[in-house]
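re: ur question from yesterday

yeah so i grabbed the chain u mentioned. its 233 aa long if i counted rite. heres the sequnce exactly as i have it in my notes:
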Amino acid sequence: MTIRSHFDQQLADLRDQILLMGSRVQAELTLALEALAHLDTAKAQQVFAADQVVNEMRFQVEEACFTLIATQQPAARDLRTIIAAMNVIVDLERMGDQAKGIAKVVPVLRKNPGQEMPGELRQMGAMVQQMLDDALRAYATSDADLARDVAGRDHAVDALYGKVFTKILQQMAVAATAERAEPIYDTLRVARELERFGDLATNVAERIIYLVTGAHVDLNEPLTSARPVPLAS
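ran it thru and got these structure tokens back, copy pasting raw so excuse formatting
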């Protein structure tokens, strides 16, 4: 095996590790949404364990990237591939954090099963799941057009978040006590986590376009009318 072919294999292995990490994040989000739909605290606990695995994978892949830079001294496109990979794993790890954030509210909502769950949450969940799935496919195939398509869907997620935000504000306005307000606020937190997940999927799309074209693009510009200022954590 030549030096070049060996390096190409290392880059292919790096891509496969990132795709595996992405699949773990997909599974984590699915668990979180199922836990939310059924107010299943046992499944919510599984999300925390899944997130720990994602975190560990992030550092393993990061170490692999550092090793490639130190030992192979890559130039031009090869270096771009590694830099893009390092950015993608950060975004994937943060997506896991958003899924974990959804799981954190499940115990509160379980204590308040009568809390209305806006239908837009289910739509947001399905949309960001598909965004991540397609972003990973674009990464696997170096498909810049698919990456742009993924990013283009983020405005629809933002618009749904805006609708949830309005509904939650209306509910908060008539909440008689702080105890009643807590599950209402946590419903908004779910929407915020999903909205942020969509932003991160768009970030991944930007990394893919950089990887394929070498151009830095900003596909995550907010629609101010659809993106209220998030509440503090």
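noticed a couple things. The first helix runs from residue 3 to 38. also The helical segments are 3-38, 41-72, 76-110, 119-141, 144-152, 154-174, 178-213.
anyway ttyl
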